[in-house]
């Protein structure tokens, strides 16, 4: 699988490059020697079982956690992501799995939170117009941007979180389970959006459990298992290969279940394609 | 997708969703107001209802309660604890508490007495020194909270005792320092009143500002293809506000007039209201109170926000202490003790600032303290013993918190928490 990295040689330097990144929470090694490259105009899907370290990796790149060791290079420079503000200033935007919205603030305030243009005199009209523009780009179904986020549904909140990440025109955008709470149309919109972001030359890291979504947009699929790299795949890799890499064995709960049912298709974890 | 896309020519940008009921015009504004009340977003309603009940009960028991000069005295008293309460709004906004504001105010008044009267410093320098010590105490609380993880409840409880000790220490054996009656500070706290024409002019101001800003906003929103809002609602609000303020000012001018000290308090409330609603700092305060981790991930310097809240609270407490020293013309061991702490916190909560953080406004200090002081004044006029006064005030505080909790529950069930 590792020869896929050779295919990237024609490209320029990666936007983001991780070498030997490890993270320990006390005695637990959440991540061990992670290597990851994201190039401009590339969608990298990060897949793995629960507890594989995907969200931890995203939080390190967002500046929420600091790595225990290893180096992070962004746009050719070695960087220290000491806090979320530092990551945002560099141009790394994140949509967290828990969305990280303030429920007591309205949609406009959430989209601009921490990024208000004129600190001493908030321009509510300009902010509202920009919020509507972002939301309409996402074909969002938000009845009013002046309602507190607490009154929105899960999918609407997800759209708000994505709109917020786009506000700063980032160079790298990370989406942690971006389609988990979305309806059919919104999922398609988010996938379209990811492609649009990629076509603008940005790097995208996407975490998803939905192999169909992953295959639909990813240029490369990076598998994590128990906090370590466990292979890099192209989107045409078979489900069997992916599941094997994710679970760590060809003989596993998913394949046993598949053979037991003796279904011809080897689809696991998802609907038939 | 396309059939729901907004059509800029036909509909305003924020009116394109067909599911939303759009409240247009004056009727719409009233309907939106009723909806808000029903969903538990009570705003100033409890205060308004409370004040009406209080006035009816107390003026029935003793007609002096509503006499103009009693209300003027009431406003003098409001200003001192009200300023302290304004600080409490700051810490409640980020979901923390400062229990030491009473001690801080007492210590500040003692400092001014000692530096100014006993040591002969210029009064302005003494006041600045007291405010600086307030800032220092706030910084210390913020350090304990941010760096050492000490709950603000405990840190400020310790501060309550420690600062009270400092107050007793610098007052020494005499126990109290009298401030000279002829000094500007004491005059400011006791007799300085606005001329009638000025108070009437100032009462016109909010309505004018409301209309000017409102019309400006409407034009900008229309230009940006947003729904402009109701012109009728704006005019009605401005007229009602102006009439109410003018009536109050007229009534107060039947007595001594509007105290300058109360004017200072209102000015501080307006400044804080602007800071909370129209600045990045205020937005960050509300965000930290609502969801600290989300605020941190949005790149907000959460520690700085907590520090600013604690520092402002202690400085407002110090200022409130100085004002009450001016009010009483003395700095004594009793200053800032007793029910000052609780009144300041209760005023913020009664006015509508949530104890749970992330919800509140600067006006809650103003409205809440008027309720608290009205009760205190009414009970004093009835010549009730302090035992009864404490019990009744405690009961009112309990009712206020119950209303807050019930409204919060209702907001949660209506999806507006």
Cross-sheet strand order for the largest sheet of chain B: 1-2
Helix-strand topology string of chain B: HHHHHHEHHHHHHHEHHH
Question: What structural class should be given to the helix and strand makeup of chain A?
Answer: alpha/beta
Count of alpha/pi helices of chain A: 10
Shape designation of chain A: globular
Instruction: Characterize the main sheet of chain A.
Output: 6 strands, mixed
Query: Mean pLDDT across all residues of chain A, rounded?
Result: 82
Intertermini distance of chain A: 24 Å
Shape field of chain B: globular
CATH class of chain A: Alpha Beta
Description:
The complex is a heterodimer of chains A (273) and B (417). Chain A has one domain (5-237): Rossmann fold (3-Layer(aba) Sandwich). In chain A, 34% of the residues lie in helices and 22% in strands. In chain A, a hairpin with a 2-residue loop joins strand 4 and strand 5 (77-78). Chain A has 273 residues and is α/β, with parallel strands linked by helices. Chain B is mainly α. Chain B has a domain at 44-71 and 79-192 and 284-410: ABC transporter involved in vitamin B12 uptake, BtuC (Orthogonal Bundle). Chain B has helices spanning 25-38, 45-61, 68-93, 101-118, 123-146, 152-171, 184-190, 196-223, 231-254, 260-278, 280-290, 292-297, 302-328, 340-350, 363-381, 386-413; strands spanning 176-178, 330-332. In chain B, 43% of the residues are buried. The chains are: A alpha/beta (273), B mainly alpha (417). The interface between A and B is large, with 45 and 43 residues.
């Amino acid at each position: 699988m590792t020869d896929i990295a050779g295919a990237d040689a024609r490209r320029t330097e990666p936007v983001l490059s991780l070498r030997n990144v490890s993270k320990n929470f006390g005695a637990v090694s959440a991540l061990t020697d992670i290597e990851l490259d994201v190039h401009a105009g590339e969608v990298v899907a990060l897949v793995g079982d629960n507890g594989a370290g995907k969200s931890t990796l995203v939080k390190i790149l967002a500046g929420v956690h600091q790595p225990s060791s290893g180096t992070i290079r962004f746009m050719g420079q070695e960087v220290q992501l000491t806090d979320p503000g530092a990551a945002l200033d560099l141009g790394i935007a994140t949509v967290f799995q828990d969305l990280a919205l303030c429920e007591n603030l309205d949609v406009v305030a959430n989209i601009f939170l921490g990024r208000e243009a004129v600190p001493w005199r908030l321009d509510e009209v300009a902010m509202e117009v920009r919020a509507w523009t972002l939301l309409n780009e996402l074909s969002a179904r938000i009845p009013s941007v002046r309602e507190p986020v607490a009154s929105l549904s899960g999918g609407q909140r997800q759209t708000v979180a994505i709109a917020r990440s786009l506000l700063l025109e980032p160079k790298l955008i990370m989406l942690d389970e971006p389609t988990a709470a979305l309806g059919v149309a919104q999922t398609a919109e988010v996938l379209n959006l990811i492609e649009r972001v990629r076509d603008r030359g940005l790097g995208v890291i996407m975490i998803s459990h939905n192999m169909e979504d992953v295959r639909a947009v990813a240029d490369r699929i990076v598998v994590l298992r128990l906090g370590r790299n466990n292979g890099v795949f192209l989107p045409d890799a078979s489900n069997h290969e992916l599941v094997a890499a994710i679970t760590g064995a060809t003989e596993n709960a998913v394949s046993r279940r598949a053979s037991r049912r003796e279904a011809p298709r080897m689809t696991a974890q998802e609907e038939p394609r | 997708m396309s059939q729901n896309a907004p059509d800029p020519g036909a509909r305003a940008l924020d009116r394109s969703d067909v599911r939303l009921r759009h409240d247009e015009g004056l009727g719409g504004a009233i309907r939106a107001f009723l909806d808000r009340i029903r969903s538990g977003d009570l705003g100033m309603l409890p205060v308004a209802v409370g004040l009406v009940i209080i006035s009816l009960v107390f003026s029935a028991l003793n007609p002096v309660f509503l006499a103009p000069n009693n209300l003027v005295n009431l406003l003098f008293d409001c200003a001192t604890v009200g300023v302290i309460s304004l600080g409490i709004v700051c810490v409640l906004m980020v979901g923390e508490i400062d229990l030491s504001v009473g001690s801080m105010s007492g210590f500040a008044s003692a400092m001014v007495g000692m530096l100014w009267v006993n040591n002969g410093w210029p009064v302005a320098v003494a006041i600045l020194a007291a405010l600086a010590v307030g800032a220092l105490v706030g910084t210390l609380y913020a350090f304990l909270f941010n760096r050492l993880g000490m709950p603000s409840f405990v840190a400020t409880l310790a501060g309550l005792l420690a600062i009270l000790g400092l107050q007793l220490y610098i007052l020494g054996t005499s126990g109290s320092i009298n401030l000279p009656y002829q000094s500007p500070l004491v005059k400011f706290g006791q007799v300085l009143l606005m001329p009638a024409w000025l108070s009437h002019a100032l009462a016109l101001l909010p309505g004018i500002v409301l209309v000017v800003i409102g019309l400006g906003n409407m034009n900008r929103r229309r230009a940006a293809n947003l729904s402009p809002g109701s012109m009728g609602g704006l005019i009605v609000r401005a007229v009602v506000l102006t009439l109410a303020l003018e009536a109050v000012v007229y009534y107060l001018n039947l007595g001594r007039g509007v105290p300058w000290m109360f004017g200072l308090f209102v000015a501080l409330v307006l400044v804080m209201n602007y800071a909370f609603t129209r600045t990045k700092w205020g937005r960050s305060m509300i965000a930290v109170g609502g969801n600290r981790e989300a605020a941190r991930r949005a790149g907000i310097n959460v520690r700085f926000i907590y520090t600013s809240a604690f520092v402002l609270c202690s400085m407002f407490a110090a200022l409130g202490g100085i004002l009450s020293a001016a009010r009483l013309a003395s700095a004594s061991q009793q200053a800032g003790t007793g029910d000052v702490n609780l009144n300041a916190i209760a005023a913020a909560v009664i006015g509508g600032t949530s104890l749970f953080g992330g919800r509140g406004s600067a006006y809650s200090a103003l409205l809440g303290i008027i309720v608290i002081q009205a009760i205190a004044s009414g009970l004093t006029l009835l010549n009730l013993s302090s035992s009864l006064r404490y019990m009744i005030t405690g009961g009112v505080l309990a009712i206020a918190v119950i209303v807050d909790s019930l409204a919060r529950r209702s907001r949660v069930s209506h999806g507006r928490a």
